[in-house]
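Entry 0007
Protein: Putative adenylate/guanylate cyclase
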Amino acid sequence: MSEPSPSAVKGPLCAALAALVLSAVLGALGLFATIDRGIYDLLLSAKIRYFPLALNSQIIHADLSDSSEVRLGESLGSRGAFADFLNVLGSYNARVAFDFIFRTPAAEDAAFAEAARSASLCIMAIAPVEMEYANFAYDSLTSEEKALLSSNVWHIREHGKNNIPRARTFILSDYPISSAAAELAHIGVLPDSDGVYRRTPLFYRWEDGLIPAISLAVAVRELGIDPSAIEFYPGHCLVLPLSGDEAIRIPVDESCSALIPFTATWADDDYRISFERIAGAAHDEELYTSLFSELSGSMIMAADTTTGKRDFGITPGETVYPLSGIHTAVLSGIMEEYFYAPWSFAAKLGTLAVFLIALLFLSFIKKDARYNIAFLALLGGFTLWTVLAWFLLRLCPWYGAIGSGLFLFWISGFVLRLFRRYKEQILYQNALSRYFPRSLAARIASEKKIDLAPAYKELTILFSDIASFTAWSRDKEPSLVHAFLSEYLEAMGSIIFEYGGTVDKFMGDGILAFFGDPFDMPDHTRRCVDAAISMQKKIREMALTWKDRANIDLKVRMGINTGHVIVGNLGIKNRIEYTVIGADVNLGQRMEGAAPAGGILVTSAVREKTQDMFSFGERREVRVKGYEKPIEAYEVVFL
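Output (C-alpha cells):
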C-alpha cells in the first residue's frame, strides 16, 4: 500500500489546525456552554414530558392555591389555619417544611408556634440575601435572631477550596414562629443568566457554618444523618453517609449547587393536596379519618402557589413553574438518589481520543460523498451516545466541544477539498474566497443585531390589571370571556405600540409593558404615562359597551415605575422570551397592586421625571413586600 502523498497529509492537517483555532475561539466565547445548555434543556424537557417519573411516595405538596386562599379567608390572616394545618399533620406523625415566611405578627401566632413545637418535625423557611445585593432593603437581625440562626448552622467536612455563596443576612419569620421550628433552612434559588432555573444552592455560608437548603434539611432529618458527617468535595459531589459504607452522592459544582432533578411537569405531579383540606381536617372528623392513610408519616412541603404571590419561574420544561416545586424535586432526588451528573474528566478524555483517531482515518477518504456521509455518521453516532447517556446514565450533555469540533473539522476539510478540486478555476476560486467570509461576517453581524442580549438599562415599566376580573369571569361562558379579552387586549396593545412601548406579555387580563427598549427613547417615562392615560380613557369608552354586553364593571388598575432593569432575550433554546427582570420591575407591579380601580399609581421616580408634564395627587405611602420602609407613590390625575 502506497504512502499518502504530502498534499494528502497537508489537507487534513490544515483542516485540523483550522478546526482547532476556530474551536478555541468559539469555546472562549462560551458557544460550547451555550450549546450544552440548550441541549440539556431540550433533553430534560423531553424526558419530563414523555417519560415523567413520580416523586418519592413519601413527599407531598400542600399547595395554598387561589381557591384555598379565598375559602380559608380570615383564618389565614390570623394564622389559625396554619395552626390547624400543623396540628392535623402532627397527629399524623408527618414531617412538615414551610415554604412561607411570616414577617408580621398575627392573632393566632401563639397557637401556630405551639403547633410547630408539638409537630413531629417542623422546618421553617428563611430567605438568604447574598453579599452582592448590598442595596437590598431588609430588616437588621435582632440579637435573638442572630443567636437563632447561629444555632441552626451546620458544620460539614469541606475538602478543598470552594465558593459556597455567603449570605449577607437572612429574612426570617417573626421570632416567636421561627424559634418554635425544629430547624431553619433556606429557600434561596436563583435563575441562570438567561432567566431559567436549572441549579439550586444546597448551602449558604453564615458566620462560621452553613445554612442548608430546605430540601436538604428535610432529607437529612428523614434519613437520620448527622450533619457533621456530611462531606463536600467541590466540583464533584456532596456525600450524605448512610449506615455502613452506603452513602448518597449528590453531584455538585464548586459552589455546592446541584442541577435540579425535575422528573415531571407541574401538571403531571400527582403528589399534591390542597392546604385547605389539611387545615379543614381539624374541624371535620370524616375528612380527618380519610386523610390519615394518605398523609401518615409523609414529608409535607407546604407552599404558597397563589397567583398573587407570583412565585413562579421558567424551567427547562415549563415557562410557568411554581418555584416551591424546586424544593420538592431536590428532596425527591435525594431520597431516590436521582440526580443529573456531568461527564467525568476521564470520560471526556477517552471520548476525545476516540474521535481524534476516527477523524484521522476519515480525513483520508477521497470521494466527497463518502467523506460527507462518514462525518454525518460519526456526528450522528456521537449525538446518539449523548442522548443515551442522558436517558440511561443521567449524564449531562457534553456535546458542544465534540459536536462543534466535528462540524468545524468537516467544514474546514470540505472547503479545502473545494479549493483543491477547483484550483484551476481562478475566477471561481477568488469569488468563493470573497463570498464565504463576507457571508459569515454578515451572519454574525445580523445575529448581534437581533440577539437582544440581556442588558442593564433604565426603562419605564407599566403593569395593568382588571379589577375583580376573576370574580366576573368565574361564571361566564368561555366564548364571552375570550371575546372581551381579545377586544380589550387588542385596544390596550395598540395604544402601547402607538406610544412606542413594548408589550412584554399578557398575563390573563394583566399586561406588562415597558418603554425604552429595544430602541432608546430619552422620553420613555413621559411616553409611558401618556400611554397609561390614553388606555384609561379607552377603557372608559369600552366600559359603556361591555357593561350592557357582559355586565362587567370595567375598571383597571395601573402601576408605573422607572428604573434600571435587565432587559433582553431570556429563555431556552426552543423558547426565547424578550422580557424585563429586576427589583424595579417588581416595584412597578407593586404599584399596580396598590393602585385604585380605574387609577394610575406611580413611584416618586416617575413623578420626578414628569412632574412638569402631568398632574399628580397627594403623596401616598405604600408598603410593599421586600422594602423596609413605605414607598412614596402618587396617583396620576387625568380627565
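Curator remark: The chain has a mean pLDDT of 86. Residues 270 and 330 are 17 Å apart (CA to CA).
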